[in-house]
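Box 3.1 A note on notation
Throughout this textbook, protein chains are presented in two layers. The first layer is the amino acid sequence; the second is a token string describing backbone geometry. Keep the layers aligned when reading.
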Amino acid sequence: MSAMVFAILAGATFFSMVFTYTGGDEAVEQIMEYIPGGKWGFIVLMMAVIFMLGFFIDFVEIAYIFIPMISPILLKLDIDPLWFGILVALNLQTSFLTPPFGFSLFYLRGVAPPTVTTMEIYQGVIPFILLQTLSIIIVMIFPGMVRAF
């Protein structure tokens, strides 16, 4: 497992270096300048993209490949990286609970008794998805909560 994570880290670092060297970061910055809503439009779009990515890929790949691609834009828009990181973590927790490929659902399916159906698991996580979504909204509305403790 450690070797796999290290291989992903090495590959992500290589990808990030090539992406930056070829001007990909500047291209992404220029594209993001046209997002309506400015800073908040960028935050909402990135939360939606990360939520969708969480359906299909693990958090390690998102953290090592996608986040470094958008980090320069975060800094340019003067977005607090700690606050945004907490939003990303909450968002990933939520996306891992959502069908069709929610990783947490597959883990739960593996330990649940055979009498519990997959559909019951999907229905059972709905309140947790709503609570996680509410927590994302609260942290977005009250960013001072992140540094309050």
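Residues 2-21 form the longest helix (20 residues). Residues 2-147 form one domain.
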